[in-house]
Amino acid sequence: MRGDGLAGGEGGADRLGELIPAALRGMAAGIAERGGPVPAGGPAAVAAALVAERGELVSEKQGSNPVSHSRPAAAAGNGSLPRRGIGAEAALEELSRLLAAGSADPADPACAAHLHCPPLAVAVAADVVASALNPSMDSWDQAPVASELEREFTAGIARLCYPAAETPDAVVTTGGTESNLLGLLLARERDPGVRPVCGANAHHSVARAAWLLGLPAPVVVPCEGDRLLPDALAEVVTPRSVVVATAGTTNTGALDPLPEIAAVCRRAGARLHVDAAYGGMALCSDALKAKLAGLALADSVALDLHKFGWQPVAAGLFAAREAADLGALTVRAEYLNAGDDTEAGLPDLLGRSIRTSRRPDAFRMAVTVHALGTDGLGALVERCCATAAEVATLVENHPGLRLWGAPELSTVVLRPVVADETGDDELVARVRRALLEAGTAVIGRATLPTGPGGTDQLWLKLTLLHPHTTGDDYGPLLDRIAATAGAELVAGRESPVAS
Amino acid sequence: MRGDGLAGGEGGADRLGELIPAALRGMAAGIAERGGPVPAGGPAAVAAALVAERGELVSEKQGSNPVSHSRPAAAAGNGSLPRRGIGAEAALEELSRLLAAGSADPADPACAAHLHCPPLAVAVAADVVASALNPSMDSWDQAPVASELEREFTAGIARLCYPAAETPDAVVTTGGTESNLLGLLLARERDPGVRPVCGANAHHSVARAAWLLGLPAPVVVPCEGDRLLPDALAEVVTPRSVVVATAGTTNTGALDPLPEIAAVCRRAGARLHVDAAYGGMALCSDALKAKLAGLALADSVALDLHKFGWQPVAAGLFAAREAADLGALTVRAEYLNAGDDTEAGLPDLLGRSIRTSRRPDAFRMAVTVHALGTDGLGALVERCCATAAEVATLVENHPGLRLWGAPELSTVVLRPVVADETGDDELVARVRRALLEAGTAVIGRATLPTGPGGTDQLWLKLTLLHPHTTGDDYGPLLDRIAATAGAELVAGRESPVAS
């Protein structure tokens, strides 16, 4: 195939049926080649391997014609795109192999650094059809039924967040960062002089959204145990505040005390947005949803189904208690939502996003929910949280490790005891990098005010989003962390400037 | 399969190999069911069909247990998500069929309203691997080789836009809307008092970006022939302006006179951003790239490969002549790009976007370019532009239609002569809606100042992004437009409030 065949229309499914196996062959080969959670050697090795592959690719394909225009540009690294192609199958199989071999694969339990989930096969398969038909969600005539399916799905999400509200609504975003921006934007549109207020535990996107929107930097409220202190909030909140609380922090998975925070906001007449990007989908679990008590008191909520929800990035959602608040996003573009078209019954989609062209991410989310049900998704959330509890117990009982605290969701925060004994935070960072460079594990880091007098200390963290593991899958990793800390301690003593 | 199998890791490729055929079966069935470019009946019919399908789905799956919790919620339309799932294959096949049957498929030549391309099968196939491995582009340890591949690809795009610049750079965006926002944001970070200036032909996202960023509304410069007038620009531009020019307008595909505009900006000391979301990939064609002369004089450029580039949405790019300008996006988040990690050699990716979690859209773009080469993509751009020229000739020779002007890219703007004879703009809008409702064609609309004394008139437009058509494919559509205009004229006379 020359490579210019279309994915949609008549014959589209057949063309995909021919090409996707080439991509999957490459992917399977690359996964086997990697053989661990992440390629070994760190950034330099990965970059060098890519350059080497490029060279081979060029000499293989070019054969006896080394001065051809087709690939030397990219191979030489001068930044040019290749002028001539190598065909669809070859490009797919080669680059898919490269990507798989060089990826940090969250489907490997030892890849546990971030809120970076292993996607469900059903979501990935659904995305094929969304990509092939390419509905763009900015006008009805580009997305007739896709917009209906999105409405149905976002209505369900709005109802999940706001079971008793009269007119809840939700829109699809690129993730928590955009959802948090919408939370501040809606507040700004009600009061141009609004001032964001958030906990010291808030995601960096809150401050970044304030910057983007031209708002003052957030007032930062202190935390205890990585949870915002309502009394401290009460001291700074005003009727012109938009408060951002967090339901599942990035550092520890802690949940802010939402009922208390909502009460403080209500008394002050302040607006409340909750960043539940991590914790929100615990609403699908009868056993866990009590953790989110008070969420429905927020004016708006951020939710990410590319965390708990097992979607490929992006699968962000933004829910508002009152649909009318989303009116702030209204925009008119004659070619997309002319007044007379809207009057004639064509739905106006443009005000459902700050983007224009927009991928139907709701489709794969909807297929996933129809496949598993919210009960099924809730069970996977429960599994991750149970695994985290098991791992926390293993940490507590481990002679070489110290536990930060009991996990609220699926994050386990720990520290090698040798770091405490030596007071060496840099050692903690080196352990993480050593495991990454060895290709044996991808673990995270968190800075928390646990040092003497509330000073910052560096911790390691495991963010457990693999839905098919138990604590036992992580025992060897804990041993390796402790052993690496010991080795790094020795290495650090021998050569203090090492690494 | 219960539906909770993972797409990555060992066995992931096999699981996808089992599930994707179910999705493609549903897609092929839905395309056959639709039988045209768009489902007939308009929004009400599409919504009703979805409700009916839901009912059938429930009674089929529930059998003798109509009060089960599993689907009645969604079926009853009360906005709840289904608690119990129906399994992966069933959900995929059913919903893929629904989506395909209810889509406006840009792979049908009669679906020609918008800059809404039919994606290439190779791009869709590549996306499967990107989704399955789920690299998130916000930190190296989530995207080791994916970040290298992105760097290689964006370097190539930067070089395409700026062949002679010393340090060009480019980043991936969600589309022209985000790229235009970045153009204004970078200007704002150099001068908080910057004022946007754009042509009356500019995309609505320019004004929207100014609003989001807290900047004043753009100063709007008049156009002639849908092209910004450099002399008029010279009258308003100041050293504190950021000028947005357009290389391929949404209405007509016209290209602003970039060299003249760049000269005006240089003389005034103003910054220049070019929205080349539509026209930019003409750079891949030796025959067409002269149209973009002057592009490299811009400080920044927006480019969309989900237009010419045949990628599924989103495939936006933002190129800057000076890499240092992108420093405005720098942000620090301890868990993603701690200073000591960056010093130790871990690349800092967070400053490559205003998003945090971010899908590797560069991967499918890179696979496509490697499959076809830029020459191959350029040839497809040429084909679309040639088809537009052929269609324009057909319009000129058509007794029932009038041509707005010779196409610059692939947009053909036309008007039924009966609308001119009656002065009835509303008739033009009704023709578009009638074709859409009949399910026979999806055509666009454009408001242009062609009326008496420069007043607005409504035109129809065909935006031709199907890379495998010729003018002959559109002859019957032109006849249908003219005939529908005649029919609407009669209907309008019989019942002036109709439609």
From TrEMBL, chains A, B:
Region feature (Disordered): 57-82
GO biological process, one term: carboxylic acid metabolic process
InterPro entries attached to this UniProt entry: PyrdxlP-dep_de-COase, PyrdxlP-dep_Trfase, PyrdxlP-dep_Trfase_major, PyrdxlP-dep_Trfase_small, Pyridoxal-P_BS
GO cellular component, one term: cytoplasm
UniProt keyword terms in alphabetical order: Aminotransferase, Antibiotic biosynthesis, Decarboxylase, Lyase, Pyridoxal phosphate, Transferase
Signal peptide annotation: none
Alphabetized Pfam families for the sequence: Pyridoxal_deC
Superkingdom of origin: Bacteria
Modified residues (N6-(pyridoxal phosphate)lysine): K307
UniProt xrefs under PROSITE patterns: DDC_GAD_HDC_YDC
Names of the cofactor(s): pyridoxal 5'-phosphate
One MF annotation (Gene Ontology) recorded for this entry: aromatic-L-amino-acid decarboxylase activity
Family: Belongs to the group II decarboxylase family.
Protein name: Aspartate aminotransferase family protein
Organism this protein belongs to: Amycolatopsis vastitatis
